[in-house]
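Thread title: Can someone regenerate the structure for this chain?

I was given the following input by a collaborator and told the matching structure tokens would be attached. They weren't. Posting the sequence so someone can regenerate them.
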Amino acid sequence: MNEIAPPRYRLVLPPGFLLIPVAHSTDDDIADLVRRHYRDLPRDSYGPQIDRTAAQLVASARSAREAGVLDLIVPMGVPWRAPVSLAIAISTGPAPDADETEPSASEVSETVTTSAGEAVRATARFAVPASADEMAPLMRVRFHWPIPGSDRQLLAVCTISGTVDPQLAPIVDALAELGDLLLQTLRWD
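Best answer:
Regenerated them for you:
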């Protein structure tokens, strides 16, 4: 079986965001990447928190790798005071069939122009979880780009997760807009 080379792309990431190359990194590589990201923090006071963060991201990266994700993009700045955050997963897949172009009933889909050319963007809000304290996906923004010189597509999924609280709705919307803006900066190398 021939391995398909991943497409080469670039994104503009704001300060505090980290791109984790999960497909071609070991768990130790990812833990080291997290520790290097926080290298300027004092280990005596922040060490345990850094180690917990590294362990959580290694577990997330392992799951993402098993799902065929190439890269994860996560905010690594100061922990949020609100229980919501975002994560972006980048992967590849076959070009969609004509039958697959219809969005689900919960999605709003449109063609947008990005730095990498035209893409299909689909936005969906998820059903409210049973418990208001439960962490769950709240909103998703998906992009699909045709990969130049290929019959495949690049897929980016930005998921905003958190607890359901009407007061946090503006933060959820702002994070979705941030994810959308980040993904619109994608360009081919």
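The longest helix spans residues 43-66.
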